[in-house]
Fold this protein.
Amino acid sequence: MTKRDPSPEQVRFTGSTRKGGLHGSVLRSFLLVCAMCWILFVWPDCGAAFEGRQEVLHGNGATVVCAPSLRRVGEELLEAYPSVRSELEKSLRWKIEFDPTVVLIADREKFQSITGRSQIVALAIPARNLIVLDRSRLRSPPSILNDTLKHELCHLLLHARVPADHLPLWLDEGIAQWSSDGLSELGRPIGGSVLDEAALSGRIIPLRFLSRAFSRDGKSLVLAYEQSKSLVQFIIDRFGLEGLYAILDRLAQGAAVEKAFLESISISPDELEAAWNEDLEDKLAWTGLFFGHLYEILFFVASLMVVAGFLRHLRRKRAAMAELDDEDDRI
């Protein structure tokens, strides 16, 4: 999830650094103050999450801010960051030329007070290359935390290259899910059950409503993520990765959304939506046909199994009779 409109409210925070040599202490204090001021300047609502002592960890081209109890997690995240960055750069063919700051929050209620959404477990703020993760719901397996980091880092990379007003939210979220093996800010890979249900009931969200904002919570939020993922996968399936890269390159060059699609894959977003809807209906039609005749199909398969079993038994019986005849001949 990306935050595009930070709150202007002001809040205060308290923090401290670990003890050490004079130079190290001064450096850590400086990093802490810079990190906190940076975060609060962009998103003052974060202030409540930083009450008490905080650690600032830096290395491998990233910074992690966390409570002392999460220091080990922060160190593991920094250690994993180079591989996460490399995988994302390979997926999008763009280099990451910024150093992100990752904030780990241990308290679920504090994180929810920041996001205002109960289902979200991670957040990206492209304006300052900031990622906020809810550690309370990103525990096991460790790969989930790394994939979530990759998802949010993808948002930062997309916004570093493409102007925000040229990047539809559905495309932003769909690409982030694709790049992180289907993982979303909901803390789990997105399947398609809600999307199938919406398609069958005629409740697909029109694409124009997914360009700037998603529903805050509930099934509508899950549906928005599922549609975004499905649409990006449809682009890849129909036009290949080169088609997706071409769209991104044109958007990065400043082309408007419709122009970028027309020049890259020769159809407009509206035409893409219509083709995607048709493809979805075709797939559901085959699924409906299968389940609509499930009993007949099962009966037919069971009949084939009975026939196959009978023929196998018949062959064994004939083989046994032939063996007895051979023994009689020898006698």
Notes: Residues 1-161 form a domain with the Zincin-like fold (CATH 3.30.2010.30).
